[in-house]
Design a protein that fits this description.
The protein is an alpha/beta fold. The protein contains 25 helices and 31 strands. The strands form four sheets. Strands 2-1-10-9-8-3-7-6-4-5 form a ten-stranded mixed β-sheet. This is FtsK/SpoIIIE domain-containing protein.
Length: about 900
């Protein structure tokens, strides 16, 4: 490195010396003579005054005579010697200049076009400091090359003669072709803009516009171009300064590799007056661009710009003057390369670029050479697409902790999410990255990431996958609660270890399990669709996670078609302000800043990636490859599954479109005899795979009521409760009394009773009449074993229960109320189904609601449930396949559950 720096220093020194010598040579004919004559006149006057004594006003003849005086011989010889030495030294400058140009500007930078035209460049890191534009002469030793600096060293400002457009285009085309034929393929980006022309801006280079090498801008897109260049400068400066450098060249020299392309921005101004704001922006760009590897070539922009500019003034179609050669030397411009040859060379270069890049980039190009080699302690970084052939990265960390993704239906939002998830999962192992994925759309966008019947593989990084949850907003709330709990856990650990962020926690607790968590919520606006408790709780949790999550490595990715209608966030911009990473799909609205219209012009299969809260200068346009079609993502998933599956559990899959099966639930599998029996009722809508259950202890009120007319759901809850209880009792240690008072349910109830009997349990089937007769016995005689009453359609039996037998003071209903009140203490528990809340009230009588300690409501409005929920207001609108569950002993407020699907019903 030291040797390279010394060599560079020598080149720069030689270049400075060359400029100095060249200036001396170019003015030799006039300046030398003027100096000699001035000195001679001074001496003549001096000698005349001192020695000869003639008057100051003496004429030329007297001065000439004075010079010929022997007294002036020494002065005359001295002047002649100086004059001869000057011209002797100047005569060597052309040869030395030719040698210097050949040394510092080899190959296409200085050779004739026939030696390089259309050939692919190979120089990866160090562009020549000088580039040939023509030649000049100063004596009979022959022409010497005239060169100008470009790329890392200087901008060019060209002013034209009245009819100099064709000559200027030829000059710029020659320069650009020299650069493209010197530097490595794809390492130079050219941006073309003309204030007056829609097309035909350097038209011979148009074949390169099908690659990343040339980008064209319409006359009204000056603002777009300046915003893009400003964004590149900001991003590159941030990158280089973070690495401890002041320029991209310094970072390139340290790393020994190219980290950003060079950019040449060509602006044809045609002498028109610019508006103040774009002119100020161009001046700012000129001052900072070179350090970011960006050079400007301006044509007829009548202003003085900041930064290092080399000036070229066109004298006519064949001649120019440059600030490097001085005003007294005319440059003979190199002959224009014929248009057909330029176009053919551009086509060959375009073909070579496409071949090198392997054609259009694919999802596989996003992936690293080796899986799972990155560390997430500081941040997550992954490419999601390509711009001009180079990868565009998404960075999730302290500076951009959360992301907001927007795009209308069909804009490629799901495909972008797959590209992002695949790129992240390929770089970071599951111990470094944990994914929680939730999709509120009516679809299965993320379902393929969980094991299925056709493909047993799953994404090892995924901990939770929720699909079809558009009607289960409670599941989104459950995810936010889980993240809030995890945030508190990590904050407590960080406080214990006296650190403030995840990187510090991982350093102080290397044996702890602290991966970065990324929670993706697609169509998240559904979570806030209602004006109810779910929205209120979700809003508060989301604000807290968004504000504090960054420090503990918990990140949110919120995706939506349109965020404008989320009433919950009116006047509460904190959530979106924390989403400094903005990704806008084509035609996305309100994701970027109000004045940033980049998404409007974005083509299909592209995304605008912005790490600066949507401000225009942060835009990066990325072409997102196909990541979601058949066998594209799944092939990566299988690789990751084979690599990590043995060490990690399969993700929890929650599919709101399918009811869970009791026998498949983890809660049912974990039931064993011993301990207080638990009646499982349905699946809890929670991050963990848990079930809603009622513990049937001897405490008062340990009975269960099902309310509503939804037959399928009522049968499911009754069935699950009976089967789960039967599994916890050894044979003959529990008695099931089954009374079905709804004819439509007789078949299902009969199947359940047969199943219980086949498991070795005693089952007593009771008719409505037998039920009434049996109540007195149940109320008076303590059971020998545990006894479970399974009553289907209790409301249908009330007329019979209300009748009193001859000679008895109490009716069957009176005895039933005693069973409900006293039965749990004696080992008798009732699980009953009432088809209306009013009939349940009639059954319980005055102040009898405490005897039903748990209930599940089906198609019952929330207003009817208040007295069964300790008087609190119940927000519940019935929906198919769901029930509202409340247990006085465990719940503060009711929760939504999903009744299990009976296997018989499935068949």
């Amino acid at each position: 490195m030291a040797k390279a720096n010394e060599q560079k220093r020598r080149v720069v020194t030689a270049l400075g010396t060359m400029r100095e010598k060249l200036g001396m040579v170019l003015g030799a004919a006039q300046a030398g003579r003027q100096i000699a004559e001035t000195e001679l006149a001074r001496l003549q006057l001096e000698q005349q005054i001192v020695r000869v004594g003639i008057d100051n006003a003496a004429g030329d003849e007297e001065l000439t005579a004075a010079l010929r005086s022997p007294v002036m011989a020494g002065v005359r010889d001295k002047l002649n010697a100086q004059h001869a030495a000057f011209y002797t030294d100047a005569a060597t400058v052309p040869a030395r200049l030719r040698d210097l140009v050949a040394r510092v500007a080899p190959g296409p930078a200085s050779l004739p076009p026939s030696a390089w035209l259309g050939r692919a460049g190979r120089e990866p890191l160090k562009p020549p400091p000088l580039w040939r534009i023509g030649s000049s002469t100063m004596d009979d030793s022959g022409p010497f090359p005239v060169v100008v600096p470009l790329l890392d060293d200087s901008h060019l400002a060209i002013t034209t003669a009245v009819r100099g457009r064709a000559a200027v285009e030829s000059l710029i085309e020659g320069l650009l072709l020299r650069v493209l034929s010197t530097m490595e393929l794809g390492s130079v980006r050219i941006h073309l803009w003309d204030v007056a022309q829609l097309t035909a801006v350097l038209p011979n280079l148009y074949p390169l516009s099908r690659t990343s090498a040339v980008t064209l801008y319409d006359p009204d897109q000056l603002g777009v171009l300046l915003d893009e260049v400003t964004g590149h400068i900001r991003r590159i400066h941030a990158h280089t300064m973070q690495a401890g450098h002041t320029s991209l060249r310094g970072l390139r020299d340290q790393l020994g590799q190219r980290v950003e392309p060079w950019r040449i921005v060509v602006l044809f101004g045609n002498g028109e007056t610019w508006a103040p704001e774009p002119l100020r922006e161009l001046k700012r760009i000129a001052g900072a661009a070179l350090a970011a590897g960006i050079s400007l070539i301006t044509v007829d922009i009548p202003t003085i710009l900041g930064g290092a500019f080399e000036n070229i003034r066109m004298l006519d179609e064949h001649h120019a003057a440059t600030s490097m050669t001085g005003p007294n030397l005319v440059v003979d411009l190199d002959p224009p390369i014929p248009s057909a040859e330029v176009s053919a060379a551009a086509s060959r270069l375009a073909d070579a670029i496409v071949e090198k890049q392997g054609g259009p980039r694919s999802f596989r190009d996003l992936l690293p050479a080796e899986l799972g080699q990155e560390n997430s302690a500081r941040e997550l970084r992954a490419p999601v697409g390509f711009f001009e052939g180079d990868p565009v990265e998404v960075v999730i960390g302290d500076a951009s902790p959360h992301a907001l993704i927007g795009g209308p239906s069909g804009s490629g939002k799901t495909n972008f999410l797959y590209a992002l998830l695949g790129s992240l999962a390929a770089r970071y192992p599951p111990d470094e990255l944990a994914l929680y994925l939730l999709d509120f759309k009516e679809g299965v966008s993320f379902a393929g990431l969980a094991p299925g019947r056709r493909d047993a593989s799953w994404l090892p990084h995924a901990r939770l996958i929720g699909v079809n949850v558009n009607t289960d907003r409670e599941f989104g709330l459950a995810l936010l609660r889980f993240l809030a709990d995890e945030l508190r856990r990590r904050s407590a650990a960080a406080k214990e270890h006296e650190v403030t962020d995840l990187a510090g926690l991982r350093q102080q607790d290397p044996d702890g399990h602290w991966p970065r968590i990324v929670a993706v919520i697609d169509e998240f606006q559904y979570l806030f669709a209602g004006r109810d408790g779910v929205t209120n709780q979700a809003t508060a949790l989301l604000e807290d996670i968004a504000r504090r999550g960054r420090a503990q490595g918990i990140h949110l990715i919120l995706a939506s078609q349109d965020i404008a209608g989320i009433d919950a966030f009116w006047g509460k911009p904190a959530v979106f302000e924390q989403c400094t990473l903005r990704i806008a799909m084509p035609k996305a609205r309100r994701v970027l800043a109000e004045t940033n219209n980049a998404a409007v012009a974005a083509p299909k299969w592209h995304a605008v990636v912005n790490h600066d809260s949507g401000v225009a200068h942060g835009n990066q346009l990325a072409h997102v490859p196909d990541a979601s079609s058949k066998d594209i993502f799944s092939s990566l998933q299988r690789e990751l599954w084979e690599r990590y599956a043995q060490e990690h559990q399969r993700p929890r899959l929650f599919d709101g479109a399918h009811s869970p099966v009791l026998e498949h639930s983890a809660a049912f599998a974990g039931l064993t005899p011993g301990g207080p029996p638990r009646a499982l009722l349905g699946q809890s809508i929670d991050v963990e795979d848990t079930a809603c259950a009622v513990e049937l202890t001897g405490a008062p009120g340990r009975n269960l009521a099902i309310m509503g007319t939804a037959i399928a759901e009522a049968l499911s809850i009754m069935d699950a409760a009976a089967r789960s209880l039967a599994k916890q009792y050894p044979p003959h240690e529990v008695e099931f009394l089954v009374a079905c008072l709804v004819d439509r349910c007789a078949s299902a109830v009969g199947e359940l009773a047969d199943g219980l009997e086949s498991d070795g349990h005693r089952v007593v089937r009771l008719s409505d009449v037998e039920l009434g007769e049996h109540m007195a016995k149940l109320a008076e005689e303590p059971p020998e074993h545990a006894r479970i009453l399974l009553l289907y359609g209790v409301d249908a039996a009330l007329p019979i229960l209300e009748q009193k037998q001859p000679g008895q003071l109490k009716s069957g209903l009176d005895h039933f109320r005693v069973v409900l009140k006293q039965g749990p203490g004696k080992g008798t528990h009732t699980i009953g189904w009432w088809r209306s809340t009013a009939r349940l009230k009639d059954t319980l009588g005055f102040a009898g609601t405490d005897d039903i300690g748990a209930w599940a409501a089906l198609d019952v409005q929330g207003a009817e449930l208040s007295q069964f929920a300790a008087g609190q207001v119940v927000h519940w609108s019935p929906r198919p396949g769901r029930a509202l569950f409340f247990d006085r002993s465990t719940h503060v407020s009711p929760e939504v559950m999903i009744p299990f699907d009976r296997l018989e019903h499935q068949a």
